[in-house]
Amino acid sequence: MTLTSATPDVVTDRWRGAARPQTSAEWLVRAEEVSDILSADAVERDRAGGAPRAEVELLKASGLVTLLGPVEHGGGGQRWETAYRVIRIIARGDGSIGQLLGYHYLWAWAARLVATDEQIAAVEEAYTAGNLLFGGAVNPRDADLVITEDGDELVFNGRKSFSTGGVVSDLTVLEGVLDGTDTHIFAIVPTDQEGIVFAHDWDNLGQRLTESGAVEIRDVRVPWSQAAGFVDREFVPLVYNTWNVPAIQLVFANFYLGIAEGALRTAAGYTRSHTRAWPYGGDDKPRATEEWYILEGYGQLQSKLWADATLIDQVGAEISAELHAPREETTPFRRGELAVRIAAAKLRIVEDGLETATKIYELTGARASANSVGLDIFWRNLRTHSLHDPIPYKKREVGVYALLGELPEPTWYT
Q1: Check whether domain 136-235 has CATH 3.40.50.920, yes or no
Q2: Where are the domains of the chain?
Q3: Distance of CA 253 to the CA centre of its chain
Q4: Dist. CA 45–CA 60, nearest whole Å
Q5: Are strands 171-178 and 134-137 parallel, antiparallel or unpaired?
Q6: Is pTM beyond 0.85 here?
């Protein structure tokens, strides 16, 4: 089955009657099944460039959308350690959908990061029971949405140039600044309303199916009671709410790794079935799979990705423990220490992933550059999103820690 040819009922019925995964290992198997479906026609769907509605239905039907949701409301009740692995697996099959799912997990957890206990319970019940997908209009580089007060309501107005997943989402996380103050407010609202207008202008080199284009917010109203983390209109700050950036930076690292792993896997398959040995070097081999430089090349790339996976999994286990621990137990030191190691993991997979997505052409041969092969999708996807924030600044963060022992201050990007 491919999503290009499948009818909607085939997608949604894929796991009807199947036992729901219970353990982390079973959820990873479910993710592999989804990834295999996505990989079958990832290039064709990327080129078509349509909104990924069938892809979202696939994620919902598989149960992956509610992986982190409470069991009592029908969710998987899994930990972030598993969610990170799921993101990576999905990205092997389709980098765009790995990003959509990763952003969804972060926004689904956003209530726990900043909201009150009552707000957390309401949000998690609603999205889990409803099997709803999150998008977000929270790009910090734009001038923030302006929020005004109207009695017991907050009114959001403004524009964001990025809103990943918004077009196909059920819920949207808004973030803006209360007019006349420097107070930032987060709120979760239904996406399908007149005041949320998408520009449909996402036309970038890679990650084409993430629907990351602009959105205009026009008089979107939210009750004060739904302003995340506010009690009697006053924000109650937590050290815990600064975990949002390290958590999403590791989302990035995992779908980068998934893209790189997908590139290496796809290239290896091509080399085994199509690449020809080079007959003019004086060391003739009957098959390309016996060529020393091809074996060396795959060995180098695989070694780097294994090393990256080890670091990413290690910090994934550690931040998972923090995200699932009582919120009051978080300390600034632990947050900073882990944030700098996540920065190290991210910078390593960006460099090693881009090397992999480029080097595979040397290991597959000239014919592999044909558009019909589609190896370019991996480089385009990784190159596009890895520009999210400058990697030299990640190197600097790690360098300052290694040389001076200084931890990064929490910002929108650290």
Answers
A1: no
A2: 8-133, 136-235, 240-404
A3: 8
A4: 19
A5: parallel
A6: yes
